[in-house]
Amino acid sequence: MAARLKVFTWSDGFHAFTVAASSRPKALEAWGLTGDIFKTGLAKEASADGPDNAAALASPGSVVTRGLAVDIGETSRRKAPARKVVSEKARRRVTDLEARLEALDGEQTKAREALEARRAALDQAQADLQRDQAAARAGLERQLKTARAAIR
Question: DSSP label at 12?
Fold first, then answer.
């Protein structure tokens, strides 16, 4: 006895694909799909009065493809968005905040420059200290060498 045929359909938004098959796996095979689009809800069993049922049942296993009409409706010019009315108080606030931000930038730049100057002075002081310590050590080492030579 031949298996009872069911009609399955799915759409990609532009076309409707309908096939008459005995099972969902056979419908997926006819469509050339490996994923289960029935599980995701993209494909379903077609209703008995579907537009492509008769054609699908007439040729089981072959896919009936039908283009879907897209009605974009009447088009009209979109109105420009209304311009937002900005109060004078809001404008003054923005101007004030911009001025405060610029002043803050200036203060921070001066602080960074002062810190860099202090860092340069500290680097110079460190170099001077190392030079003085090295000279003092070298002088003592010479004196020690001379004193050791005298006792031998």
Answer: -
